[in-house]
Amino acid sequence: MRLLAATVAVAAIVATPGIANAGCRTLPDHVFAPYFQTYTDANPADVSQASGARHLTMAFLQTQTTGSCDILWNGDPRTPVDRSVYGKEIARIRATGGDVVPSFGGYAADSTATEIADSCTDVGRIAAAYEKVVTTYGVTRLDMDIEDISLDNAAAIDRRSQAIHLVQQWAGRQHRPLQIVYTLPTAPTGLEDNAINVLASAIKYGARVGIVNIMTFDYYDNQAHDMAADTKTAANGLVGTLRTLYPHRGNRQLWAMVGITEMLGIDDYGSGGETGPLEVFTLADARDITHWATVQGIGELSYWALGRDNGGCPGTPGSDSCSGVAQTPYQFTSIMKRAF
Q1: What phi and psi, each to the nearest 5 degrees, are found at residue 275?
Q2: At 251, is the secondary structure helix, strand, or coil?
Q3: Measuring CA to CA, how many Å separate 221 from each of 130, 188, 224, 228, 312?
Q4: What is the pLDDT of residues 79-137, one digit of tens each?
Q5: CATH for the 3-339 domain, from 2.70.180.20, 3.20.20.80, 3.30.450.90, 3.40.50.10330
Q6: Alpha carbons 166 and 8: distance in angstroms, whole number
Q7: Beta bridge partners of 280
Q8: In angstroms, rounded to a whole number, what is the distance separating the alpha carbons of residues 27 and 207?
C-alpha cells in the first residue's frame, strides 16, 4: 500500500475514549518495567502490588491467524483490545503511580507470522491497530518484540516502520506523547546484522525509536556464560551501533536509549552443559546489573517475567512459572526495582 493511502486510512479513524485520556503521563526517563505474562490467569494489578513493580510490560498482542489485521491479547478472541479487558487493572496500577507498556509480538507470534506487521500487509491497518491500543488504554509507550523469523521478514520490517511513523504523526497531531521500544535479541558482543537492519528500517521510514531493549539471554552458542558480564558487553556493543546509526547524539543520550531484558534464573537454553546449566542469571547478577544500570543511566531495565520470580522449581530451565534457582517470592524484583 502507498504511504499516502495509509496516511488517509489512519486519519479517518475516530479515536475512542481511553481510560487515561485525561493525563497521558509519559513513563520515567529511566524505568524498571518487567514483563507480565497476559496469557496466564494472574491479575496484573495484584502482581504489581505484590511484587512492588509499579511499571509492567504486558505481553503480548498479536493476530489470531496469519493474514489477519485484527489485534488481540495473545491472539485470543476472548481477550480483545477493549476497556473490558485489563481496563480496571491498568487504572489500579496507575492509581499507585505506575503504568503499563503493551508489547506486540514475542516469540510465539514472531515464529508463526501472527505478529501484526508479519500478518497484515496493509500499513494503514497496522497503524490503526497501534492507535487502537493507545486510545483504548491511554498508554504512552508501545513495545515491539521482534525475534525469530520476524527478524528476517524485510517486507514486514518496513511495514512496521511505516506504520509507527504514521501513528507517531497521528499522536503528534493529537498532542499525545508516544514512545516506541524495539525489543531485539542480541549476541554477547551486541546486535547482529538482522537486528541492526530493523533499526535501519526505522530510521529510513522516519519511525522514532526511543529505546532499543536487548534480550541478554538465550545466546544458543553452547558456551557457558557469565550473564552479568555478557549483559555489559552486549550493551556496549549496542551503544557502538547506536553511535553509528545516530551520529549526532552524545554518549549520555545513547546510553539512555539502551534497554536491558534479562531472563531470571535458568533460561531457555540453560540446561545445555555437561557440568550444569550454561546460562543462569543469579541473584548476584541481578545486584550487579542493577548497580551498573543506575551508573550507566540506561533507559529501561526489565526481565522475563514476573510469573517466574519465585523459587518454586529449583534446577528447572526455562519454566514459565518459576526461575529454577533458590529464591524468595519476588526477590529479583525487590533487587532490580532499586535501579531507578
Answers
A1: -100, 5
A2: helix
A3: 35, 10, 9, 17, 28
A4: 999 999 999 999 999 999 999 999 999 999 999 999 999 999 999 999 999 999 999 99
A5: 3.20.20.80
A6: 10
A7: 266
A8: 19
